[in-house]
Amino acid sequence: MTAVGELVPWLPHAGDTLLAMSTPDPELFDKVVNLCKRRGFVYPSAEIYGGFRSTYDYGPLGSLMLRNVKDAWWRSMVQLRDDVVGLDASILSPPQIWEASGHLANFTDPLVDCTNCKTRHRQDNLDDPDTCPSCGKTGTFTEARAFNLMFKTQAGPVEGAGADVYLRPETAQGMFVNFKNIINTTRKKPPFGIAQIGKSFRNEITPGNFVFRTREFEQMELEFFVPPEDADEWYKYWLNERRNWYLDLGIPEDMLMMRPHAEDELSHYSSATADVEFMFPWGWGELEGIANRGDFDLKQHSEHANEKLEFFDQATNERYVPHVIEPAAGATRSMMAFLMAAYDEEIVNDETRTVLRLHPTLAPYKVAVLPLSKKETLRPLAREVLAALQPHFMTEYDETQAIGRRYRRQDEIGTPLCVTVDFDSLEDNAVTVRDRDSMEQVRIPVADVVSHVAGALSR
Ligand code: GAP
């Protein structure tokens, strides 16, 4: 783990010109989106009804991989630490929370309508603020109006005032409103954090780029509460930790950048924020924001709820409102980045081999059991190997098609290892294990298959 306060040599100063270390690759986008659909990672939602714009369903492989992304985050942020606890707060939330957080007043985008072609646009995204990009007419826009991005609905059977509820636009507020509960029930004291993974909803005006920006998405957020005087050190600490998380899971260094916000980009309550950015096929895009939020959130909720949200330090006999460092990441967006970074094509025996070089932690299946042929004679041993592996690893079983094609199918979905049961296996009680990346094969006794796979996956 990074020592608190360690220097951050790779962090440029706000406003510095950043060198694009990697370059955009527009073709990669279509290749990965096609693979996702073809192999069951991500499907457009409600496709049999013609689709439902910018919503997606995570298929058999995507649901496994998304779970792996979230598990990897939880392991690093909660399981391997003794200063972070978890939370799973409700998605439906009362207006008071969003009043206090500022979302009711400020979580808006400026919208303009074209009076000629009746299309609606985000004013801040227009190349020319006077010209409609849909019909090309100039001077046809209405005055900009603030469009709130929160989804509002009604709770209970009675329509009207008092029944309004919101789908949370971020998981963060659940952590702030539970601060007192958690202090009282866990006896944690600053520095400590609350972590949460879950769905958030934003009525984005311009969703797009596959699962990069959607109206329903998953976040992985940590609110880390610290004594005010230590906030700068912890901010640097979390920049380091979060950068390393992506690198450790296989994002190449030249596709990752930390981008500090310039002064005029900072939220009014934040003294420092940096984004973790990834080189998507269209250019750099945010994966995560790490912010020093000061005491803004706890103070706002204290005031609005009329509850003291502070910490009493028995050692010094002092009461204070902790400051908050918030690493806020997107799970669905990170999954997309991991897929983009892992996609590779190479020529093997005059044919293109597509291989997802996913980190084993993220790969949907860790291992596939492939009997050499469909013949009845191989099946009992192959199923025995499958049964031995299943309790330990997500394992796929496939006996269709020629073995070479089955290897390629596993390469394409990122399965790190394939175990082949052949006719010799019936004699020598051994199997062949093939490595996805090197395509090397080794012969090992059936009795060693679980320990061999465990060893190979952890290398
Ligand atoms: N609590 C702070 C917060 O929510 P944010 O930068 O708005 O900060 C954090 O969101 C992360 O959530 C983003 O870096 C991104 O990965 C993800 N995210 C935000 N909006 C998203 C959207 N519409 N679709 C997919 N992911 C989104």
Give the key terms.
binds glycyl-adenosine-5'-phosphate, disordered N terminus, 459 residues, single chain, 7-stranded mixed sheet
Our count of helices gives 13
Q: Roughly what fraction of the amino acids lie in strands?
A: 25-35%
**Widest beta sheet: strand line-up:** 3-10-11-17-14-13-12
Uncertain parts? 1-7, 15-20
Mean pLDDT: 93
Total strand segments: 24
The general outline is globular
Radius of gyration: 25 Å
Verbal overview:
The chain has 459 residues and is an alpha+beta fold. Helix content is 29%, strand content 28%. It contains 13 helices and 24 strands. It has a seven-stranded mixed sheet with strand order 3-10-11-17-14-13-12, with helices on both faces. Helix 2 (60-79) crosses helix 9 and helix 3 crosses helix 8 (296-305). Mean pLDDT is 93; it is low at 1-7 and 15-20. The structure holds glycyl-adenosine-5'-phosphate.
Question: What is the element layout, followed by pairings?
Answer:
Elements: H1 26-39, E1 42-44, E2 56-58, H2 60-79, E3 84-87, E4 92-93, H3 95-101, H4 103-106, E5 108-113, E6 120-122, E7 145-148, E8 152-154, E9 164-167, H5 172-177, H6 179-186, E10 192-201, E11 216-226, H7 231-248, E12 256-260, E13 272-280, E14 283-294, H8 296-305, E15 311-313, E16 318-320, E17 323-330, H9 331-342, E18 343-348, E19 351-356, E20 367-371, H10 379-389, E21 395-397, H11 403-413, E22 417-421, H12 425-428, E23 430-435, E24 441-445, H13 449-458
Parallel strand pairs: 3-10, 20-21, 20-22
Antiparallel strand pairs: 1-2, 4-9, 5-6, 5-7, 8-9, 10-11, 11-17, 12-13, 13-14, 14-17, 15-16, 18-19, 22-23, 23-24
Helix pairs in contact: 2-9, 3-8
The structure holds glycyl-adenosine-5'-phosphate.
Glycyl-adenosine-5'-phosphate (GAP) binds at residues 170, 172, 202, 204, 213-214, 217, 219, 221, 286-289, 328-330, 332-333.
